[in-house]
Inverse folding.
């Protein structure tokens, strides 16, 4: 079955660190664009980071320098290392696969597979 | 960053009504726009990609249109299972950005 399963989140003190993982099955993470998207309680969706199939990584300004996206191809797992956590990082974190297609005359990029999300609470 | 706005922020309509949501981008994004549906406690699901293409398995009552900076999302005949929040999202440039969402419920 094609699916994404995030690890459990948790309650972290401000300034702390947490690594969340996302185990993929049914497809290789290494050959896809993989993302983290978060949603603060009662709020909208915010894209956090992407790792391209070639390994390049990009981040939202709100997490740049604090969060690191990575993958372990042998475990077919995506990670998000979160350091220097702040109260405003409290959110459900979703991993999401992107469908991506690019040619001279057509470009498509959308999230076609999502995990169920994991709640990270940053609070003292 | 490209800013996305949506209107209305919420709406209430009757079963069978035609519902339209608009999304505006802060700059020209061609047709590089997707629409997602999110039901409470669930992950989002893509309904429309590339502004007007129906996602796999998505009912034909959903449709999208527009290009440049102005986009529309329509439910031709609202059904009870369509109660959800709908988000537009651009992919013209990183960072990928979402609109603030439109919450749809049944009158």
């Amino acid at each position: 079955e094609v699916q994404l399963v995030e690890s459990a989140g948790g309650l972290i003190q401000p300034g702390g660190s947490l690594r969340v993982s996302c185990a993929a099955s049914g497809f290789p993470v290494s050959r896809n664009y993989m993302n983290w998207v978060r949603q603060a309680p009662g709020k909208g969706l915010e894209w956090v980071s992407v790792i391209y199939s070639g390994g390049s990584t990009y981040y939202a300004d709100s997490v740049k320098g604090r969060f690191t996206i990575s993958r372990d191809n042998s475990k077919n797992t995506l990670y998000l290392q979160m350091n220097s956590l702040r109260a405003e990082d409290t959110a459900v974190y979703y991993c999401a696969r992107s469908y991506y297609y690019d040619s001279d005359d057509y470009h498509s990029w959308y999230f076609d597979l999502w995990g169920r999300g994991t709640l990270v609470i940053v609070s003292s | 960053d490209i800013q996305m706005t949506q209107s209305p922020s919420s709406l209430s309509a009757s079963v069978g009504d035609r519902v339209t949501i608009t999304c505006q981008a802060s700059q020209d994004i061609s047709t590089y726009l997707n629409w997602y549906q999110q039901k409470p406690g669930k992950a989002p699901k893509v309904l429309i990609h590339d502004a007007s293409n129906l996602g796999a398995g998505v009912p034909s009552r959903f449709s999208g249109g527009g290009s440049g900076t102005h986009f529309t999302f329509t439910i031709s005949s609202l059904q009870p299972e369509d109660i959800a929040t709908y988000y537009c999202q651009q992919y013209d440039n990183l960072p990928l950005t979402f609109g603030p969402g439109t919450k749809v419920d049944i009158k």
Summary: The longest strand of chain B covers residues 19-25. The interface with chain A takes residues 1, 32, 34, 36, 38, 42-46, 49-50, 53, 55, 87, 89, 91, 94-101 of chain B (CB under 8 Å). The mean pLDDT of chain B is 97. Residues 4 and 99 of chain B are 5 Å apart (CA to CA).
